[in-house]
Amino acid sequence: MSEPDVSVVVAVYNTMPYLTKCLNSLLRQSIGRDRIEVIAVDDGSTDGSGRELDRFARLYPDTVKVIHQANSGGPAAPSNRALDQATGRYVFFIGADDYLGAEALERLVKAADEYGSDVVLGKTVGVNSRNIHQAVFARNEVEIGLFDSALPWSLSNTKLFRRELVERHHLRYPEDMPVGSDQPFTLEACFRAKRISVLADYEFYHAVRRLNAHNITYRSRHVERLRCAESIMTFVAQLIEPGEQRDAVLLRHFTWEVARLIEDDFLRLDRSVQEQVTAGVRVLADEYLTDRIRTQLEIEPRLRISTAQRGTVDDLLAVIRQDAEHGVPPTIVDGVRWYAGYPGFRDPRLDLPDSWFDVSDTAADWLARLEAIAVTWETCPDGERALTVTARTPRRDLASLTSGPIGLTAGDVTGTTLETSRDSAGSTVRAQFRVNLLLAGAAAGGALLAVRSQLTAFGGVGTAAVRAPTRPTVSRLMFRRGMRFFVITPTTSHRGQLVIAIAPVTPRRVMARLRRKLPHGGK
């Protein structure tokens, strides 16, 4: 076999039955099997994944190479072993439960050759309501920068890399990171690349959220994720000199990895874990949280991280409980400045600067903060079903401060505002989302639609995620769109925000539900 264009690396651990679709998507690529090699490393699977890999190797011996090894505890070691065996001009990584569009590799290689790119990103979409950050895929780009684009928010390894770049800098995955080991690899590759390109006009990569949610990212624990956040941020600091460029990357890590450690589920952790996480966040903030980064953080992560840095575990718990249990914080007006009335504001014991609580420059967004108090299914006059969301704010003056309608959106779907009213305790907004519009905004693989409020005030448009302190108790319902069936589930995200999950109903999903209902799992 001559030198392949692409070496496709697949790290495999217990991914049946998704693995079969993944491998089929690779062997059916329009680029042709003679131009690719698939290097799959079975990391000690116990569910038959290893046997499935061997079956494909027998069917396609000139294309598929399988390596079996004892379980290593994460994707880093198998990825590194595959890299050591790769011979292609380019290397591409795919999760063993994901799959590619039929023309993905051909388009990526063509672009890399034409533009002379060291890294090429192809548009990634989520399946089964998996949420994928889309900002970097706004348009095709021959060249983007690491520090002046949305690239730091898309540091997964699901990209085409020039193998010469990988080997010249001996880029490998840190094997002591059970979670997030692809980020240091991807970050350094992008940092070293002479050109990074983006292709956004085709669905290249389909990232699957497993229905059983057993992959390591979903089940990893707070202390493990803290250690990985520490490793990632230390790596960034070693790679990039202090200053604006480093801050552009670390902003993502404070917003994502660090902030997620102290989301609402922090309240349910054991006290010892709360103490470990708080101490770890404090160290990271002391070391890397510059004023430039802090001012760019949204108010919730800014105050949670800052309180962990300056206060005690109980101080942090009080801030989180304000959002998770008590609702929208009060607004403290001092002259022309607006401040978020979270616990700790002007507390002499903590000595937190007023500027950390200041929301004056984003007053329209602050005004838009609402809390969902009810989610119900209703039937419209024409017989169509709709989801109605009722949200509240403690501000009685909401309508008088706005200069237009106050509404709710779910993803790109704008709800119909049914009511905007006030009483002695605050203001209420009620909006309705018709099912046909929700389904129209969902791809075949489903969607996760975040519910947000939107209003016009102070000369600008304000928007904010609608929080739901308690998970909606409304039932999930199944609907048909064309020949497909979808289940719509109102629920909450890990951040305590209201989302509408739309998932396709597949034969596999139906069988999985039947097995759960049958005695002994259907055996």
Automatic annotation (TrEMBL):
InterPro entries assigned to the protein according to its UniProt record, in alphabetical order: Glyco_trans_2-like, Nucleotide-diphossugar_trans, TarS/TarP_linker
Every TarS/TarP linker domain range: 230-319
PANTHER family, per database record: GLYCOSYLTRANSFERASE, GLYCOSYLTRANSFERASE EPSH-RELATED
Keyword Ligase attached: no
Domain of life from the UniProt record: Bacteria
Domain Glycosyltransferase 2-like: start-end pairs: 7-131
Organism from which the protein derives: Plantactinospora solaniradicis
Name of the protein in its database record: Glycosyltransferase family 2 protein
Pfam families registered for this protein in UniProt: Glycos_transf_2 (PF00535), TarS_linker (PF22181)
Keywords: Glycosyltransferase, Transferase
